[in-house]
Structure formats: C-alpha cells, structure tokens
C-alpha cells in the first residue's frame, strides 16, 4: 500500500474512532443515569435489579451476582473515569459492599454465598457454583482500591483462596453431588472467571500478581482446551482432560462466551508479552465464533448453537441477548487496538451498529436485554435475575477507554508522508 493510501485509510479509521468515542461516552452517561436513579435501596443498602422498562421495581429480591457486579462497576467508574468521581456514586458502592459483607455468606464464617437474598438480606437460594463468590471478590477488591479500607481487601483475598481451593483441590464445599452417570465436564466459565480474578487482584499489585501468576497460566491453558475440531470450533464444555464430550452437552456452543473469553485471553497474552498467543486468540476466540455465530439472515449473534448444526435444546437458542453483543464490541475493539488490523475495526462497527440500533432504548434509557431472532424486543424489562448494572456499562466504559487511547496516538493528518512511499 502506498503512503498516500495508508494515510487516507488511517484518516478514515480516525474519523470512525472519533465518532464512536462520542457515541459510546454519551451512552455510558445515559445508562449509568438509569441505574443511579432507579436501582438504589436507601433503606437496606444494595441494589434493586428487577426493573421494568421505565425503571419501576417489579421484584425486590437481590441477586448476589448482580450486587457484586454493581458495586464493582460503580467503584471502577469512580476510579477510572473522571466525570464519575462523584461522592454519591462511592457512597452507593460502599452501601452495596456493606450489604454484601453483612448478608452474602449463607452461614458465616463459611465462605459459600447465596445466589439470591430478600430485600433485607435473608438467603433465599444457593447455587452450587462459584460465581456469586467470584463477583463478591471483584466487588471487595475494587472497594479496597477506591477506599483504602483493608477489610475489603482481606475479604477479597480470603475468598480468592477459597475459590482456588474449590476449583483445584476440593469442590465438596460447593455442595455438588458426584453422581455416577454425570460426565466429568468443565464449563469454560470456571477458568474464565478465575482468569478474570487473577487480573483483578493483580492489577498494580506485584505481590498478588506473582502469587497468582501460575494460576493465570493454568486458567489460560484450560480455556484453550475448548478449541476443538482441529481448531475449527470453540465448545462450551469439554472433559476435564480436554477431550470432546458426547451428546448435546459436548456439541454446545455459546458465541458470546467465546468472545468474552477471547478478550480475557488477549489481556493475558498482553501481560505475558506473548505475540503468538495474541494471534491465536484473535483467530480462534474472536474471528471463529463470530463467523459461526452471526445470524446471516437477521444479523446479531445467536445465543446458543450446536457445533454439528443440529437444533439446540435450549428454547432461547435463536434469541439475541444484550451481553454477547457487549462482549463482542469489547473483543473486536481490543483486537484492533492490539493488532491494528482494520478488519477487526470493521467487525466492531458491524456489531456496535446492530447493538445500538436494536438494544438501546432512546425513550427511557439503558438497553433491552432480550430480543427475538428478528431483533424485536421480546422482554421490555431492563433488569432481572441475570441482567444488572454490569455488561452494558462495562462494555461502554472499556470501549471509551480504548477509543481514547487509540485517538491519543496522534492524528494521522499530522504525520508527513512521502508520495509513493511503501
């Protein structure tokens, strides 16, 4: 490519980045305004997440996943984005964190957290998984970062140690029964979440980064085992020894999860300074799941797929959900930021245009979460047992940060070019 053509292409990319930075920043402000107005519980602390289209609370149950996620989100914005450095945001995060400290664990001093609590904090249901505890850990570590209160960090580190014990040594504390007919399967979500926590706790903390370095490599290796079929598919579940599983469980694909795993792995590759892993991740965990997961007829990412093209058993398989599209936006913009490949920027724009057009609600703010295959709104709720203040604002905040970093590299119009230069 000649120097002139290269600068012309750079200018086009520059204009795209500028336009998206403005759109993303404005949308982040609107989304956060929705949650700050409608979700706070001034009586008990914590957050309401079962919110209708206009923000009306339709159920006051509190889901520990979503409590931890919202605390983390508020603290991260307070710490990273200057315009969100507001006392009321921090006060709400602390109230949410203290609600978790008082109520999240089912039988203190045991570490197992509830999945859902009553409004005043009484446990309603427990899941036999690690995810409530993972988001509890994220919330506590981020609270420590913005407050300096060591009790939060102590909680985060103690829970992290418990998580590692459950995953790598003895899962019996989770309450999972080992039934003789159950396959020895590993869902991709488990090493994904631990890898996320490795980065969270190790950020600007050399001691914890060193402590969990081996764990990060282990998590990355486990996630990479989910690339199957001679590198032609990412499967959601594999056997513990890395083999493909039989039946629907083994054929199950989740394109959004693969893309989310992609940017987790890409961050890991960047920390390791491993360009080969970076290239592999972009190819297998970004381009591959997008090519198979994008709906050629109606656009958007399928929620679930069967690797052999059979009909998935999940009733919602063809729906379009908010979070896979949020993760795809992060993944492709991060891939472009690291590689400079304009094809990844085009994919970011393709996903972002669809997402902004179909999911965002210009009347009441925030995004709808659940569309049918054709892109029509299937559920008007803005939050529920699984959708809270997390995927959308995390996506927007991360994209704004990456767009700002890309633009700060300099205006291509200011770079002198020799005509005909290669």
Short overview:
Helix content is 55%, strand content 8%.
Could you give the order of strands across the largest sheet?
A: 3-4-5
Cα Rg:
22 Å
Biggest sheet statistics: 3 strands, antiparallel
Number of helices: 14
SSE order: HEEEHHEEHHEHHHEEEHEHHEEHHEEH
Number of strands: 14
Structural class: mainly alpha
The overall pLDDT, averaged over residues, is: 95
Enumerate the spans where pLDDT stays under 50 for 5 or more consecutive residues. Answer: 415-422
Q: Roughly how much helix do the residues carry, as a percent range?
A: 40-55%
Strand content: 5-15%
Distance between the termini: 6 Å
Shape: globular
Please characterize this protein's 3D structure:
It is a single chain. The longest helix is centred in the N-terminal third of the chain and has 36 residues, at 3-38. α4 packs parallel to α6 and α6 (189-202) packs parallel to α10 (255-272). This protein has helices at residues 3-38, 64-80, 87-103, 131-147, 150-168, 189-202, 206-211, 213-224, 247-251, 255-272, 275-293, 322-339, 342-358, 391-407, and strands at residues 50-51, 57-59, 62-63, 116-117, 123-125, 185-187, 227-228, 233-234, 237-239, 252-253, 305-306, 320-321, 370-371, 377-379. The strands form six sheets. It has a three-stranded antiparallel beta sheet with strand order 3-4-5. A three-stranded antiparallel beta sheet has the order 12-13-14. It has a two-stranded antiparallel sheet with strand order 1-2. The protein contains 14 helices and 14 strands. The chain starts with a helix and ends in a 15-residue tail after the last helix. β1 (50-51) and β2 form a beta hairpin. It is mainly α and 422 residues long. It is globular and about 60 Å long.
């Amino acid at each position: 490519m000649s120097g002139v053509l290269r600068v012309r292409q750079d200018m086009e990319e520059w204009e795209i980045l500028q336009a998206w930075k403005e759109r993303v920043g404005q949308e982040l402000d609107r989304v956060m305004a929705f949650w700050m107005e409608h979700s706070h519980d001034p009586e008990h602390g914590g957050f309401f997440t079962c919110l209708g289209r206009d923000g009306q609370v339709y159920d006051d149950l509190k889901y520990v996943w979503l409590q931890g996620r919202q605390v983390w989100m508020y603290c991260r914005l307070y710490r990273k984005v200057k315009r969100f450095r507001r006392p009321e945001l921090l006060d709400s995060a602390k109230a949410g964190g203290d609600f978790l400290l008082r109520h999240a664990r089912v039988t203190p001093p045991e570490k197992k957290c509830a999945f859902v609590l009553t409004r005043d904090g009484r446990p309603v249901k427990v899941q036999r998984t690690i995810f409530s505890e993972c988001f509890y850990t994220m919330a506590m570590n981020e609270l420590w970062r913005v407050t300096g209160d060591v009790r939060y960090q102590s909680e985060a580190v103690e829970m992290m140690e418990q998580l590692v014990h459950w995953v790598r040594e003895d899962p019996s504390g989770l309450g999972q029964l080992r039934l003789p007919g159950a396959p020895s399967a590993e869902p991709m979500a488990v090493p994904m979440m631990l890898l996320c926590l490795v980065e969270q706790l190790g950020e600007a903390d050399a001691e914890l980064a060193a402590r969990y370095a081996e764990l990060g490599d282990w998590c990355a290796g486990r996630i990479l085992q989910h690339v199957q079929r001679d590198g032609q598919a990412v499967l959601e579940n594999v056997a513990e020894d890395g083999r493909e599983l039989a039946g629907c469980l083994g054929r199950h694909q989740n394109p959004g999860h693969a893309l989310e795993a992609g940017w987790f792995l890409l961050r890991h590759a960047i920390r390791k300074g491993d360009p080969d892993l970076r290239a592999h991740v972009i190819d297998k965990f970004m381009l591959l799941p997008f090519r198979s997961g994008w709906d050629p007829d109606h656009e958007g990412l399928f929620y679930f797929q069967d690797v052999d093209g059979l009909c998935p058993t999940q009733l919602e398989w063809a729906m379009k959900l908010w979070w896979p599209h949020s993760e795809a936006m992060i993944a492709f913009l991060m891939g472009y930021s690291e590689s400079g490949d304009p094809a990844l920027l085009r994919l970011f724009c393709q996903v972002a245009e669809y997402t902004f057009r179909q999911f965002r609600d210009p009347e009441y703010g925030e995004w709808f979460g659940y569309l049918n295959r054709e892109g029509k709104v299937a559920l008007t709720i803005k939050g529920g047992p699984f959708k809270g203040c997390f995927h959308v604002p995390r996506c927007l905040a991360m994209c704004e940060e990456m767009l700002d970093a890309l633009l700060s590299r300099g205006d291509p119009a200011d770079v002198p070019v020799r005509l005909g230069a290669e």
